[in-house]
Amino acid sequence: MDRLSSTFAALADPTRRAILAKLSLGGASVTELAKPFAISMPAVTKHLKVLEGAGLISRSREAQFRPCKLEAAPMKEVSRWIEQYRWCWEESFDRLDAYLAEVQTAEKPGKKKKKKARKRH
Amino acid sequence: MDRLSSTFAALADPTRRAILAKLSLGGASVTELAKPFAISMPAVTKHLKVLEGAGLISRSREAQFRPCKLEAAPMKEVSRWIEQYRWCWEESFDRLDAYLAEVQTAEKPGKKKKKKARKRH
DNA sequence: ACTTTATTTCACCAATTGGTTATTTAATGA
DNA sequence: TCATTAAATAACCAATTGGTGAAATAAAGT
């Protein structure tokens, strides 16, 4: 599977997102990460494997613990991908901009009308 | 399933992302969307159902066609969620900043050292 | 050497996913 | 009315997913 797909897939589970949220506050052991959830340790191990497979966490050894660390780099790719579509979900704001521009123009009749033309569909 | 999860799940498939990419250039019928892929129509219909379920597309009727339209709103939520982690994947740039600041300080010994302290884990 | 603690692996299960072909529904056009 | 085109549904399949309990592994403490 491609990087983007495996990252999205890893992020599609609320348990895994909660794990990432906790890890954003600092590294943690598997048992620590498992605590908030009503699931078994093997289930947590599996979630961690998915996150590791997506490159979203890295692991090391420290005595009998296997601490996890957040590796947010793959999110950068996700962010870049999603930003492609920003203009789409901000269209309504564009219309608001256009509206406000209209109002301003109306108030100052000497000014020229500016075209925005960012809408593509 | 929660909105964020179903959005991430919908985006975790390259075929569905390609469909969204095409739809970002304008509305399209199912057959038009299916053309670039070596899969059957029912498979495309299923992908569209997943996208519709996540609120990423909307559909209407026009003669015997069922045109699809991109609805990027759910991506806004994804963007907001992912931005929470931006400081994490930009840490290395922070260290670069810090390094460059050090170099500058070394070159101009009269200047004070600036602390950045954006690292939280 | 034995026990405890932390974690993984194994073998299984039910539900979901992404795909198929064959059939049905819906609207248009001859 | 009948054929055509567009799309959805039905029934099925193999692979994946998220979970389980039981057993194995690894390091530390006694």
Q: Radius of gyration of chain A, rounded? A: 23 Å
Neighbour order of strands in the largest sheet of chain A: 1-2
Helix content range of the residues of chain A, please?
55-70%
Largest sheet: number of strands, sense, barrel closure of chain A: 2 strands, antiparallel
What low-confidence regions of chain A span 5 or more consecutive residues with pLDDT below 50?
110-119
- Globular, elongated, flat, extended or rod-shaped: what is the shape of chain A? elongated
CATH class category label of the domain at 3-81 in chain A: Mainly Alpha
Secondary-structure-based class of chain A equals mainly alpha
User: In CATH, what is the homologous superfamily of the domain at 3-81 in chain A?
Assistant: Winged helix-like DNA-binding domain superfamily/Winged helix DNA-binding domain
**What kind of assembly state do the chains in view correspond to?**
homodimer
Tell me how many strands of chain A there are. 2
Our count of helices of chain A gives 7
Structure characteristics:
homodimer, 121 residues, mainly alpha, Arc Repressor Mutant, subunit A, two-stranded antiparallel sheet, 7 helices, 2 strands, 5% strand, disordered C terminus, DNA-binding
Please provide a written account of the structure.
Chain A has 121 residues and is mostly helical. Chain A has a domain at 3-81: Winged helix-like DNA-binding domain superfamily/Winged helix DNA-binding domain (Arc Repressor Mutant, subunit A, Orthogonal Bundle), CATH 1.10.10. Chain A is built from seven helices and two strands. Chain A has a two-stranded antiparallel ribbon. In chain A, a hairpin with an 8-residue loop joins strand 1 and strand 2. In chain A, helix 1 (3-11) runs antiparallel to helix 4 (41-53). The two termini of chain A are 31 Å apart. The A-B interface holds A 2, 4-6, 8-9, 11-14, 17, 20, 24-27, 70, 72-73, 75-76, 78-79, 81-86, 88-89, 120-121 and B 2, 4-6, 8-9, 11-14, 17, 20, 23-27, 69-70, 72-73, 75-76, 78-79, 81-86, 88-89, 120-121. The structure holds a DNA duplex (30 and 30 nucleotides).
